[in-house]
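## retry 2 of 3
previous attempt timed out at serialization; input unchanged, resubmitting
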Amino acid sequence: MHRLVHAWAHDRLQQKNRSDIDHFCLSALQLLFEAVSNCKDLPQAKLRLVPHLKENFDAIRRLQTDTGGENIDLIDKLEYIRGFTNKIGRWDEAAAMRKQVLEKRQRIFGDEHLDTIRAMHNLAVTLSYQGQFQEAMAMQKEVIKKAQQTIGNEHPNTITAMSNLALTLSEQGQLEEAAAMQKEVLEKRQRILGDEHPNTIVAMSNLALTLSEQGQLKEAATMQKEVLEKRQRILGNEHPDTIIAMSNLDATLSDQGKLDENALAITLRDQGRPEGVADSRCQKAAKRRLRSWKIWRK
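## retry succeeded, writing output
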């Protein structure tokens, strides 16, 4: 929308009574909800929605604060939209929405309701992406405890919560505890979902990363080769998850001193460096491992 049109609409709305403004805010949320649901998988299309989502969220938050209303459908829409903002890396907007969703769920359903536990779990995911690991870890431990009591130890969401906590532990350098938890997650997923399930392969990849960081390079490389082979066979060579698997394996082989010299030469050439020249920043970037926390879905 052009700025002049936006300013004109804003001025006209200020002349309306409060109920009309509330109605327009909710109507705009519905339009944005539909736009997010049907958004093309293009970064430009997604990013264009962000300013409108932020403005509408601020307006909705004021509306809810002033009226004290607890509209379940509204909260569900906010939760869906915050998933969108989280997915495109807008962590601040996602965290703000998820905190409000959690507060609403707690007030409406109580702390033990599954929707509340899911909201807490998903907020912890966003906090992890923001690097707020201590707060995320405390929340993840509470989620696991509540999930075990509510849906049981073997439920996929409980296992996902364990996997996410293990990733946070690993990020904080608590590798032994992380590896033990990831081995349990892998064993459960193999038993419940099977060896070829995407979540089982993710669990194997996560464990391999932690083993690599512990210096158990041979075991990590063996596991990463299996992950890569499965992703190539199931997803194809060009899939992002296959490329990540290749990157992780390359990093471990590099630590072992087994990275193919031609691959290293290509990496250096693409970075504009002469062959055989690499500083510590280049080496660190080449060895970066990629992790991904997982949300719960309704």
